[in-house]
Amino acid sequence: MTEATVRERADVAAGLAAHWQALDQKLAEYLTPEARSKVERAFRLGAAAHHGQTRKSGEPYITHPLAVAGILAEMRLDTDGLCAAILHDTLEDTLVSHAELAAQFGEDVAELVDGVTKLDKVKFRSRQEANAESFRKMMLAMARDLRVILIKLADRLHNMRTLDAMSDESRRRIALETLEIYAPIAQRLGMNAIKAELQNHGFAAYHPLRHRVLEDHLHQLNGNRRDGVAKIQQSIAAKLDHESIPARLVSRVKSPYSIYTKMKTEHKTLAQVLDVYGVRVVVRETMQCYMALGAVHGLFKPVDGRFRDFIAMPKANGYQSLHTVLFGPGGTPIEVQIRTEDMDLLAERGIAAHWAYKSEGSAGNNAQSRAREWVAGLVDAQSRSDTSIEFVEHVKVDLFPDEVYLFTPKGDILALPRNATALDFAYAVHTHVGDHAVAARVDKKLVPLRTRLSSGQSIEIITAASAQPQIGWLEFVVSSKARSAIRHALKHMQHEESIEIGHRLLDRALEVLGASIEQIPAPMLDAYLQEHRLRRLEDLLAEIALGNRMPQQVAHALVRDAVTLDLGTMARGQDKILISGAERGVVSFGNCCHPLPGDDIVGYLSAGKGIVVHQAECPNIPEFRKNPDRFVAIAWDREISGDFKVALKVVVDNKPGVLATVAAAIAECQSNIDTVEYQERDLRTAAMLFVIEVKHRKHLAEVLRRLRRAPVVHAVSRYVG
Q1: Does residue 93 carry a catalytic annotation?
Q2: Residue 640 contacts by C-beta under 8 Å, 6 or more apart in sequence?
Q3: Closest CA to 505 of 581, 583, 579, 574
Q4: Cβ(459)–Cβ(498) under 8 Å?
Q5: Given 24, 59, 78, 93, which residue is catalytic?
Q6: Judgement on whether residues 657 and 593 belong to the same structural domain of the protein
Q7: How far apart are the first and last CA of the chain?
Q8: pTM assigned to the model
Q9: Is 92 an active-site residue?
């Protein structure tokens, strides 16, 4: 070993010792010597396991876990949480096993490390899918122990602080993920200090030029305007002192990201964002918050409509404060936040405040209980999600920065995302209420379920036992709970319908062979299901209904001694499957011919789609006859429901305003336009193809009559492509 190598290793060891001493000094402020000793053991194992590994910056890798632990030590995280933070990459990047961690530090530490660990060893089709599955795993681990997300947020924060060592592409990817996922999670958990830093680092990495412009702008404002804020702060302090309200005042400046967000959401220029500075008033007791509010309103005129009482109605993350905007000297608006010391700690640390508080019912524990409620909702959402990517989208939807506060008929308060509808409220009350909702009363006024709600409204949901979720509901709900519950219900309903239709198709095929499902010996049926890797008979029936398996082929396999039949004539003389239009997913209607109730129709089993309904005169029928075994005997039911698409060819004058005239005529017949396109145009006329929604042939006839009366219409006819 050369002298240079020895010297280099000594420098590395000295550097690591310095890093550990810096962390140990923080630990000494609140941990016992025994606890610090356990954390040191974790450091030594981590340093040995990561030996030889370096970061992109060239530093020993162990400096990163130590920095993560340092961030958590500032939150006063417990011993096991700190050990897990130091060891959080060992399972992923070293030879250390779960069993080894559990043996040396306990199962809690091992589980925490496992919860933070990505799924890099599992093969996924894309980076997006891998990231989504890792995120899903982390959120489920978070449901068991909230310390998982604290470690992950601290990990992400240190990575953002040291992002400069990464490539441009990596910086932008990590920054976007931070802005879309991790900063909103920190906000949802009430950890505003970490949220703000994640946002600013992410903003600087993703929009470096915009960040620099805003920073320069803030630097230019540091003169006169800051002096004005200082004078306002002095005036408020003097007023509170005069009123004998003990308080601590802190000035604050909007971050570049906060200014940028306000410019985007409120469509303002940089010069129009005036409330860049603000003052925070921190008092001892809740009652003093309202006394201080009266004092500052007596000192400066408040801006109308800019007062929010988050003490009486806390945010979903537990945040409590009074917010008011005052007209300062020269008309400059100044935001003033008023809260207690406990509320201030909670606002900065969120769920992390739990480890600073020990008493039941304290602010920290309250924040933790709210966080657990939110995580429980996420666990419910993931159980209803088919893929990890879908689950991540649910989480994104749920991470709204603003809420509306609504009252139940009993006076309870529910917080929902901004732009929430009456249906979102119904699902927030209970999934059963949402599934059977038909209308709502908002402040005792009857309104439809798609009605947007505003803070302070009282909501009553009207239900009916026969009501069921509709696919159209997904177009207007905004909460992740409502969206996941609706999708789950629709999938369940589709599955039940597919089983029923599959049962009828297989029954018909077996009947031709002189058998029935009930007559098939159980061992033969079980053997068929096992051979085709199907768990139960219902799965087989669903596969048949969706067109993935031909009922005739299944019937022949189940009845081994059956004679060969003309598959094209098997359905003759059998009962037809009745179509009502209410079927979901299992039955669809061909876009080539757009069949309507009353038309002669045929059914065609299409793989993955189920029964596709076509007109008997559809131009694609000759092509379908090449697979006669896929034909299904169908007919219209007596009871028809829903809207049906139909194509119309309309020849009109080629002049301005014609499209509006035709569209108005269609709308007068209570019909919706799905698509419209020009087919042909010359100097005098134009041929347009409309796809509209009608309820039946009679409704279509009404639309045709109305169009023919329009002076700009030369001809109109039903179109079959």
Answers
A1: yes
A2: 580, 581, 597, 695, 696
A3: 574
A4: no
A5: 93
A6: no
A7: 82
A8: 0.56
A9: yes
